Amino acid sequence: MANNKLAIIGGSGLYDVEEFKDREHLKVKTPWGDPSDEILKTKYNNIDVFFLPRHGRGHYISPSNINFRANIDALKQQGVTDIVSISAVGSLKENLPPGKFVIVDQFIDRTFARNKTFFEDEIVAHVSMAQPTSNGLMNACEEAIKKENISYQRGGTYVVMEGPQFSTLAESNLYRSWNIDVVGMTNMPEAKLAREAEIRYASVSMITDFDCWHPDHESVDVKQVIKVLQGNVEKAKNMIKNLIVNFENYIDPKDPTNNCLDVAIITSPEKRSQKTIEKLKTIAGRILKK
């Protein structure tokens, strides 16, 4: 159990957890470029935890320009085994009002301008995304949320749009016709890359608005989102503290993420150059060195 390490990736509004006093900022280099910002390494209840703001501190990176590969590689370099994503999203359902949290268990990826795999040169791998989130980690998130008496829904589908613009009304209604729960801009390809890196992943979405479909609410704007975010973020920080303490209690040794590369790489060994193996050493070194 001692080898399990948790990282939090903070989305819009969540750029730090100020209560973490034992602080070390790590500037990490990766073969894919620089991550969004320095990684905060800290301790809470004597447990190591890592924190990375997805958009950078001060929110200067657009969703399409986030270096998702560098973020995941940088966290894996620190020995991270579990990632919980905290994201701001819009609601596509009446029963999911602003302020409610959703523990997401499925995604629909509608992005088109992002690098979505580590396996782009010479070495080809096909990981399963049938169950993109870790059930054990979702259980840990649920317990952490319950402890704070936060209104939440366990399970839901998150459609990831390219952005940075918000949805058109036609898009919003299309997503609703698909029975999707929330819409956002950042969990893909993040979840796909975490799976390729054999890092267990869970997503907690904080609802800030009703997108633009709801006839009784104004179309979403940044001012409105920030207002709701301020309340959500304080709840999220308390949830994170609970999560740090409890997540190891829910780790499933049979989680399909743990060894998913065992059955994913299809490229013959003789076609794998040493240069590419070196580039993938953090992500897939476990399997490529065999």
User: What gross morphology would you assign?
Assistant: globular
C-alpha termini separation: 24 Å
Q: What is the SS-derived class? A: alpha/beta
Largest sheet: 11 strands, mixed
Number of strands: 11
Along the chain, the helix and strand elements come as EEEEHEEEHEEHEHEHHH
What count of helical segments does DSSP give? 7
Radius of gyration: 18 Å
Provide the residue-averaged pLDDT: 94
Pick out the low-confidence regions.
none
Proportion in helices: 25-40%
Strand percentage: 15-25%
Describe this structure in words.
With 290 residues, the protein is α/β, with parallel strands linked by helices. It has 7 helices and 11 strands. Helix 2 crosses helix 5 (222-246). The two termini are 24 Å apart.
Fold blueprint:
Layout: E1 6-10, E2 23-26, E3 39-44, E4 47-53, H1 68-77, E5 82-91, E6 101-104, E7 106-109, H2 135-147, E8 152-154, E9 157-160, H3 169-177, E10 182-184, H4 190-196, E11 200-209, H5 222-246, H6 274-279, H7 281-288
Parallel strand pairs: 1-4, 1-5, 5-11, 6-8, 7-9, 9-10
Antiparallel strand pairs: 2-3, 3-4, 5-10, 6-11
Helix pairs in contact: 2-5
